[in-house]
Request: fold
Amino acid sequence: MATAKGALGRFARNLAVEWAPDDIRANTMNPGYTMNPGYTERPPASGDVNPGAGDLEEEARNLTPLGRRGRLEEFADPVVFLASDAAAFVTGRSPMVDGGYCIE
Reply:
């Protein structure tokens, strides 16, 4: 996953340089652990198709300073910002929208 996110960030930077003369901006977004329509707070106790998923969920929460997964609607506003005139001077960026997961 990290390789794909890194590649998309590099792609955005390359496009930003190529397309800037035509006043076209190129940005991506790096989402963190995300809830999706099938997401449940706790995996089922039995019959889980992903053994140990409970441990993975706890690890994701512990590694994310906000202590939870992001909701889909929380990713919309950063994308709208990047696509809007408010970000007219922003290009080649890949903001982390990850609840602080990538804080160093």
